[in-house]
Amino acid sequence: MKILVLGSSGQIGQPLAKYFRKLNHQVVEFDNFSNSLTDLRIPHILDTILPTIDFVFFLAFDAGGSVYLKTYQDSYEFISNNIKIMDNTFESLRKYKTPFIFASSQMATMGHSSYGRLKHIGEKYTHCLNGKIVRFWNVYGHERDLHKSHVITDFILMARRNHRIDMKTTGEESRQFLYSEDCCECLAILLDKFNEHKEREYDITSFEWIKIVDVARLVASNFDDCLVCRGEESDEVQKDSLREPDKNILKYWKPKTPLEVGVKNIINGYKD
Q1: SS3 of residue 263 by DSSP
Q2: Which pTM value belongs to this model?
Q3: Residue 30 half-sphere exposure toward CB, CA atoms < 13 A
């Protein structure tokens, strides 16, 4: 099968491309981070590629960790970038009727968040085109674009550089995390049974809650004499909005990697 991965340099797209190559699929990578000529904000840029593609993973988005979202998600450029990415991509998917999975977020239900509202719009597009939706819950892995890095990467880099983790918040907010390799396995299963599974939406997560301060302590435990210093801010990005994920995906797949193992793998990867 010939698979197009949009957002192939991201922390999901990069391991996903490798994962499918190991399964002997032909993978076409497409990401503006590694190649400025593959910019989904350009109209019709996919029209010469999609006729040769069997399946698309729509992972591309202008997004990042909480620091990036807090800084940019209400800016004109952030909103405009994502509207252009979605409008151009979905129009090409509509034109060529290519089957696809759209990467949404558990924040799609959070009306206070511009990022969440944009992902919700993407879900509406996906329903119109009979695609399928996966809502990711804080997938973590090796990141290349550190300008948009997420919390686990931020903590690891602080611990490596300074033997000290300075948190932005009190850390009392809770999250669910999923290791990127487990995420890839889940997406491969959904692709394999794309036409058989009746559900159109899936929450992809570990189904385990953990406080951010405990994540910081877990990261710190992998370094000698590493301090964890809690901040004073509250959770302004998600505003402590918690909902339980739908467990329908567990009929087909279960996460395997404990958080402590995934974190250690990332630390070792940065050492390499």
Answers
A1: helix
A2: 0.90
A3: 24
Q: Of 69, 57, 68, which is closest to residue 12 (Cα–Cα)? A: 57
Single-letter amino acid, residue 57: F
Specify the pLDDT at position 271. Answer: 67
| Three-class HEC string of 22-44 | HCCCEEEEECCCCCCCCCCCCCC
Instruction: Tell me the pLDDT tens digit for each residue of 132-190.
Output: 999 998 999 887 777 777 889 999 999 999 999 999 889 998 999 999 999 999 999 99
Integer Cα distance of 23 and 194 in angstroms: 17
Domains (ranges, CATH) in the chain? 2-271 (3.40.50.720)
DSSP per position, 143-198: -S-GGG--HHHHHHHHHHHHSEEE-SB-S--EEE-EEHHHHHHHHHHHHHTTTT--
- What is the rounded distance in angstroms from the CA atom of residue 120 to the CA atom of residue 118? 5
Give the separation between CA 90 and CA 98, rounded to whole angstroms: 10
